[in-house]
Write a structure and sequence with these properties.
By secondary structure, the protein is an alpha+beta fold. Helices cover about 30% and strands about 30% of the residues. The protein has a 5-stranded antiparallel sheet, with helices on one face. A hairpin with a 5-residue loop joins strand 1 and strand 2. It is globular.
Length: about 90
Amino acid sequence: MASGYTGERRAHLEALAELLPAQGLVSRMVGGDDPVLWVWHPRTGRQTIIFATPTHNGWLFLWSPGGQGRADDLEHAAAALRQTLDMAQA
């Protein structure tokens, strides 16, 4: 069952996804009623899933390993995500 935040969550994830091609990243919305954003870096092959969650100060994006960005600062979040996925494969 979808939460009351589904529409807002999807809107934040879609807004972030729009900025990712400029960072050299590719993304796809997955999860249906509980949307998440699957993001990968075509050159390094690294990938992660982005979660969007409400906090007491607005919405926050979370990704592995330990990354986060604020939904009200999309450019910074996209750049931080790119930095995470830009690291060479181990």
